[in-house]
Please model this.
Amino acid sequence: MKLIDGTQVYHILQNLNNLEISFMEYSRSQKNFLKYDTYLEFFDNYIIKSQNLSRFYFPSPMDGNITMPKYITELEEITDYFNILSGCDFTVAKQFNFPNSLRHKCNYYAVIYLMEGKGTLEFDTELFHLRRGDFYIIPPEVYYAISVDVESLCLFLNLRRSFCYIRIHEHFSRRHHSDYFYITDNIRLRGLYLLSRHTYLQPR
Model:
């Protein structure tokens, strides 16, 4: 399937939401969303298989080269090998809207962007209620769990550590340290150079 523009991608994401809802509400048997096989069953949907739409969730191929546990709760750490394609510095992935959020950490930077809907983002000591437009950066090795409503659209930008270190170094080699770092033209994040002392960053 050839992607044409952002509008097409948005419609695909909406359709994936509808497939998730159908999978939860109209399956013949009750689903256990803590079991890894449940997600493989979802990917076995004809539309998802025929259009290779699983790549919107996991950019890496779901093949025998990756050994997965029986329950997702055993995935204490998710590595960039699983979520970032070889030869790439970052990938974008859709968050499942299924129940049973997974508390885990990653060995890469996770950027969370809630396009639509609402949800919660939980750390060990803090809970944040997510709203449309919220944007968070979670550094590596920080435990968190995210849960979004069934009609929400939540995207992850997964960035390798090496990519972030190089870009931060380039930025501060050209500019003086300040209290603000503009990661995009319209999203201002406080204290990016203090990442090692922060659990998360959020829009000001």
Observations:
- Residues 148 and 190 are 25 Å apart (CA to CA).
- The radius of gyration is 18 Å.
